[in-house]
Amino acid sequence: MPRVEFEADSEEELVALAWRWVMGPKRQARDPVTSAADQADLGRRQLGEVLNAIRGADSRRLLREVAELSTHEQALVLDADLAARYGKRTGTAFAGIVAGPNKVMRRIARRDLITWDADARGYRMDPADAKIVLQRWPAA
């Protein structure tokens, strides 16, 4: 089995080494304002590409529900009611519904779109992502 090891003098250096290995070298920005704007634009473009790639009706529906609640700092609770609304017998079916969008998001933006909140026993999304999802997929 392949193995990757990092060696550092402090925990901070170790995390920085692992971060660089996963994310690549940091780009040096000449203008921090432009850099922040460029990053925001990149995030919107990446999320737009992800949303265009999502074809599953259940995945689209779930993303929309999570986005609506995330704009109000709430989670979409995984319970029997949710399973019934989606015609699923158990909550484990939602792992597959969430996996598709997250797989595409990881490939394009190297992060998850939907996250599990163990405290709320439900799914959440970054509020900035949620706003974009709601703009792209308005309520029917």
Q: Largest sheet, if any? A: 3 strands, antiparallel
| Beta strands, count | 3
Helix content: 55-70%
**What is the ordering of alpha helices and beta strands?**
HHHEHHEEH
**Structural class of the secondary elements?**
mainly alpha
In order across it, which strands form the biggest sheet? 1-3-2
Topology:
Layout: H1 11-23, H2 32-53, H3 57-70, E1 76-77, H4 80-85, H5 93-109, E2 114-117, E3 122-125, H6 127-136
Antiparallel strand pairs: 1-3, 2-3
Helix pairs in contact: 2-5, 2-6, 3-5, 3-6
Describe the protein's architecture and organization.
This protein is mainly alpha-helical and 140 residues long. It has a 3-stranded antiparallel beta sheet with strand order 1-3-2. Helix 2 crosses helix 5. It is globular. The protein starts with 10 loop residues before the first helix and ends with a helix. The mean pLDDT is 85.
Keywords, please?
mainly alpha
Brief digest:
This protein is 59% helix and 7% strand. With 140 residues, it is mainly alpha-helical.
